[in-house]
Amino acid sequence: MGVAIRTADRGDRELVARLLDAAFQDDPVSGWIFPGAEERRTTHPLLMAAFFDIVLDEGRVDVTEDGTACALWLPVPADDEGGEDDEGGEGGDEDGFAQLREALDPGNERIELIGRLTAEVHPSGRAHEYLWLIGVHPGRQGEGLGTALMGAVLERCDREGVAAYLEASSDRSRELYERLGFEVVAEGPLALPDGPLMWPMWREPRASR
Question: How far apart, in whole angstroms, are the C-alpha atoms of residue 177 and residue 159?
Fold first, then answer.
């Protein structure tokens, strides 16, 4: 049976924020940004809601009909100087990261830092689709929902000859993306200061058969 997917709108803000919060509470990068359990519990969902707002304005949010998985995509034009982050803000726009930090958690420099670091490694020059975030509710992981969410966009990328890009935040997600045709960029993983690795990954469009 196929997975029913729809495009989210403003009315889905709370649903998507809650879903992303649940999906990323135990993620290594989220844990690095918010090392304190209380801060992560209170501020992490606000950051997820801010991500939804940014992506909905500039890109596309897909969500399964049952509300258990979502994917946030941003189109990056050719010659763009940087990208957005798997956990972070508008790409190439340090002011955007600074504004997120000021609005959500002024004392937490990592909200701003992660955006700057991932923008530095984001490939430029070619137009591509950027998977900023994809989240599946912890109780539904391993059922293929994430693959289904990505599939429609990647099929369109193949038809139109457009590349795709993302940053994997764990070994498990990196292995999933490799099965979908993504490869770690030549520069290799990004080591967050005193934190985990992130893997910038690029996918060339596959030739239609």
Answer: 19
